[in-house]
Design brief:
By secondary structure, this protein is mainly α. It is built from ten helices and no strands. α9 runs antiparallel to α10. It is elongated and about 55 Å long.
């Protein structure tokens, strides 16, 4: 006796569709991305989107998680650098590259996604802020280790320094979205690096 399973197998690649949703959210922000924009880009209908990803907010959260895993892998790689200076340098320069990547929207999904306020009582903006703070805390932990190892001066506050670095990164994201080119972002990075003691 053959047992039939309910429903049909998905006729689309969920990861590829999610990548296309990332582009829509990145370009239009969470509020600006309509369900029609999303489903058109993903090549699926609304019932398929709901079945595979849940509602729009759940889709956005999954898009941000995938973006962090793939598009922001450079941030994790920077933490493995041998010195605090090289960690910050690699992070900020790789960030500038990512913000001005040909064929991708300018700026950063985690910034662009929540710039416009909406009807969700700020839940998406808070989610993005929490996501960015997690990265800032990882950087602060790396800088604290540098203080312990004598790579940074003993009076360095790793939390304040990490916040400074992330402020530069986020500022560059806003400028990139407004049309600043890679050379301009690199110039900002070079100035910011003067605040990081070299070993």
């Amino acid at each position: 006796m053959t047992v039939k399973t309910r429903g049909r197998p998905r006729a689309f690649d969920p990861d590829a569709a999610l990548d296309r949703a990332i582009e829509v959210f990145w370009e239009h922000g969470y509020e600006g991305a309509s369900l029609a924009d999303l489903t058109d880009a993903m090549g699926i209908n609304r019932p398929s989107m709901y079945a595979a990803y849940g509602n729009k907010e759940e889709l956005f959260r999954r898009a941000v998680a995938r973006y962090a895993e793939h598009d922001m892998a450079y941030a994790r790689e920077a933490l493995a650098e041998p010195t605090a200076y090289s960690t910050v340098e690699r992070f900020l320069k790789a960030n500038a590259d990512a913000l001005t990547q040909p064929g991708r929207p300018a700026g950063c999904l985690s910034i662009q996604g929540g710039l416009a306020g909406g009807s969700d009582n700020g839940q998406v903006a808070q989610f993005l802020a929490t996501s960015r703070l997690a990265g800032e805390q990882q950087l602060a932990e790396r800088l604290a280790r540098a203080v312990d190892e004598g790579d940074l001066p003993a009076d360095t506050d790793p939390v304040d320094l990490a916040r400074y670095v992330m402020t530069v990164s986020e500022g560059n994201a806003v400028h990139a979205a407004a049309g600043a080119d890679r050379a301009s972002l690199y110039a900002t990075v070079e100035i910011a690096l003067r605040a990081i003691p070299k070993p």
